[in-house]
Amino acid sequence: MKVIQVVNYSVSKLNLGFDPLAFEHDWHIILAKEILKRTKRYEIECWQPERTLSEVYTREKDGIVHRRFPSFYIPAPSSKIRAFEFSIQLMRELKRQSAENEILIHEHTLHSPPTYLIALLFKHLPIVVQDHSSMLPGLFQKCIPEKIPFRYIDHFFLLTRERRDYLSRLVGTARLELQTMGTDLHVFKPRNKTEARRGLNLPLDGKIMLFVGNITKRKGVDYLIRALPSVSMRYPDTLCLVVGGGCSRYIGHLKKLASELNVAKHIRFLGRVEPDSSLATYYGAADVFVLPSLHEGAPVTIMEALASDRPVIATSVGAVPNMVSNFKTGLIIPPGDSSKLSEAAISFFENHGKFGACREVARQSFDWDKIIGNTLRVYEELFATYYHGRQIQ
Q1: Average pLDDT in the 127-156 region?
Q2: In this structure, how many other beta carbons lie within 10 angstroms of the beta carbon of residue 218?
Q3: Would the pTM of this model clear 0.85, i.e. be above it?
Q4: Neighbouring-strand partners of residue 332
């Protein structure tokens, strides 16, 4: 039995300066690794188009077969029409594999022409779609009657209630389920704050705010910096830690902004932190995690913070409001509003004792053990249904 995990975009289009053939941090690969930690029942392959390739690239690592297929990229002619890419070789290989194996297709792109085409061409196969974006269909996708291909998708894992409501009008509710990706609760766990700070050579007293993520405009770090003057005026011992990599030019712009606002001494840019065990220490050292993004899906950093028993200040974008229980595990603010961010930070420091449910929320919603267990349940039901009603042993 084989599960083929598929995404429908090139890593290189993200332009993050890494080797697309060595990249192993996309969700379909992460999910495959988590599945194989818990069962060897399935062969798993991870497929992806890559527009920089001229021939198919294949390798095997950690028990997973990785395949990258040459593709052609169709850029977005306007902000209302999304770009997409397509690989003929990927479709051909999927046809060949389906003729030779009992396979299940697990797609990781929802509103995408290649997803629609796979659903229509391989409707005789079990298909699962996992949504990773809170965005509803663009103009091009709206021109396609999604109800037709979606009738051949057996199960949808969705991020938001809004997305579920949208799809329920097309396919009903029986095949729809809210489920994010997950985090490792054994790595990200409550830690002694003083010990964590001592280990990282951070001030033992004072207020520490933490940001973790790729440092891009979309993540809203500039709004975090603009909020610091008000926060540091109220709490002069405030320190903001910014963990993550990004364009050096943009990071230079943010450092200049901090200097212009006279808060440079209140912020430290720490670059990327690896492995996860080291990153977990930063969560343990922080008082509050801050994610001021302008756009999001279901950020793994919020899962990590809550698993570390740290409350969250985040914006009302994507699945974030579903993930953060306002006034219980954190505070939700509007995106692009530095004054609301500073108000939330000050309010948190004055009422930090109110936020006591973080770890329990993470345990209930973002534990990989539960998420993979549920995913495998869906796989088992679909394999049994499609392949002669055979029961999985």
Answers
A1: 80
A2: 13
A3: yes
A4: 314
